[in-house]
Write a structure and sequence with these properties.
Blueprint: H1 4-17, H2 19-26, E1 53-54, E2 59-62, H3 86-93, E3 103-111, E4 116-123, H4 124-142, H5 150-155, E5 168-178, E6 183-186, E7 188-191, E8 203-205, E9 208-210, H6 218-223, H7 227-240, H8 259-266, E10 272-281, E11 288-297, H9 298-304, E12 311-312, E13 315-317, E14 321-322, H10 325-334, H11 339-350, H12 352-356
Parallel strand pairs: 2-4, 5-11
Antiparallel strand pairs: 1-10, 3-4, 5-6, 5-9, 6-14, 7-8, 7-13, 10-11, 12-13
Helix pairs in contact: 1-4, 10-11
Amino acid sequence: MTTPIEQWLAVRAHLTQHRHALAVRAADEYPETPTVAGTPLLTDPRWMPSAPVPLADIALRHHPDRAFRGVDGTVGLVLPPGAATYSAAMAAHASPSVFTNRTTYRLLAVDLAVPRLDFGDGHYFDGIDVGEACAHEYAARELGQSEALPLRTAVGDPCDPARRPTNVAISTLTLRLDRTTGAATFYLHWRDPKKVGHAGGLYQVLPVGVFQAAGDQPWNLENDFSLWRNTIREFAEELLGTSEDHGADRAPIDYAAWPFAARLTAALGDGVRMSYLGMGVDPLTFATDMLTVAVIDAPLFDELFTDLVSHNDEGRVLEAQPFTAATVHRFVHEEPTQAAGAALLALAWQHREALLA
């Protein structure tokens, strides 16, 4: 007879091994919710612009005192003995190598008419305790261990940030554009399930990073409240394999004095173009991704990413892929690509003329 811990681990293993197929099927739980570009990624039409929006045009507002009053992950979930939350169960029995409860900026509202995004404060494990727990609950039902989905039912609309703690990952499709030929290439990440707490075993664009400060110290929370600065740090970490804190435990990062950050920032609008294409929610885990594209001219890309890594702390970086209809179709429809990455690739292909102009 299996113990409760063994039973929990068996469901966890099924979730890890079949994550992509489960996500595709989980979208059927939301027949009234729009999806992005023919992929399983759920969305709110108010999150989706009709054309790419320059990232610099999006204003941010921070509401650090805005308390969360929605579903917190304690509804009807079966956990191993001694674990009060899903993140505690993972830490005790299935912890990846990268698993820390960092402070995050929690999504409150999106208003593309301005355009503006509003954020409060949260923690990384908030999303694990609800979203990954809902994924586990869904996998358990597929294995016949339960019939109901009480936590998922309690959440209701996954695209309503008032219903659940909504951390946002900034997912960036990085396109290296050769303007002499018009050809572009892009990079993908295979997320190692032994190293990451979310989306292990799937392909994803890169860089991707939860919108959060470089450290939890008060000076970082204000200094790093920037979509662009978050993306800079992820470029350095995921493509170059550098540390993600940059001394933030001692003082705020001086982005103007950091050569890599200063060079990227100086090239914005002339060598680097960052665009927002929308936002969506993974139907299995409720992971919420801001979909962005960075188009970097080939000479600058080659200058900045001479030491492009093949592996980083979260998995393997694939060799450059041609940005063509065939390759996009392959990773959108044929490979186990995370819903957000598939949606972003499909959207970028739809908007390729505007993005590569």
